[in-house]
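COMPLEX REQUEST
Ligand: zinc ion
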Amino acid sequence: MQSASILSPSKPSGKFSLPGMVVALAGGIAVVVSFGAIFSLITSAISFSIPLVVPAMLGAVVGYATMKLGTSFGRCRNPKLAVSVAIIAGVVAWGTQYVIDYGRFRSVAFATIVHELPQATSQQVDHFVDQWLQEETGQSGLVGFMFLKADSESIEITSHQYGVPLAGFRLSGFSLVIYWLIELLMIVGLAAYINRSYAKQPYCDQCETWRDYEVPMLGSPEHVDEAITAFQRRDIPTAIEALGTCEQGDFIRLEIEYCPRCFEDAYAKLVAVHDTGQPKHWTEQLLWSNRLDPNLTRQVLELAR
Ligand SMILES: [Zn+2]
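STATUS: Structure written out below.
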């Protein structure tokens, strides 16, 4: 994935491929349904739920899947649409866990009733299950099941440090509904966050492809003035040679943004990176920047890499 444009900031066009975005949404949902199933199985296998770990993982999976599909198939340059698709897939991801739980509940209930009443037809058994939910909660089907969960769910907090449950507490009624909302917000929020900026990345409308951003080389500051003059003369081989190789300490970063198909309208810049001596603290200064024609772009990419 490219980093943000090194050109002066331009507004994303808002365009996208409609069939591609449909693929992104459908594919994103397919991915989250399968992951939802896996997480649901894991949660039931370890027989307790670790609060907020599963939604965080689901949110990351949903966000990554919709971002990848929206970039490749949807070619989406509409940030609002990109985020909306992630939100829809996130809501589905949240619901999937409970639909799967509900399916498991029904099959257990079904088996129990068949055991008690071997003569009953499957239609009758289904009816008994719904009737029981109705009596317990006032609702049948998935809604009744969610009400039932709201009455009986228990959540355990485990400590990673000691690997043992610290506290088991029951969430029910209103507090469980709040917990579900937090889960939903976590999944949706994380998915939206991951998808917030890909649609703003530079794009070549002519070739219908994303532009590339690359740092083909890091050079030494020693002969940087010579390198800048050579770039201004459009003498790429001399410029690259003058940049030399990066030693320890301060260095020069060559950046280039280009369309990997047509190479039109590329843009390059030289940035001086100064090591302040403090750990992880660098200062940057723009030394030179300019557009490059396709021929010069190819030269830079060939010689600098
Ligand atoms: Zn192009």
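REMARKS: Residues 267 and 291 are 4 Å apart (CA to CA). The two ends are 18 Å apart (CA to CA).
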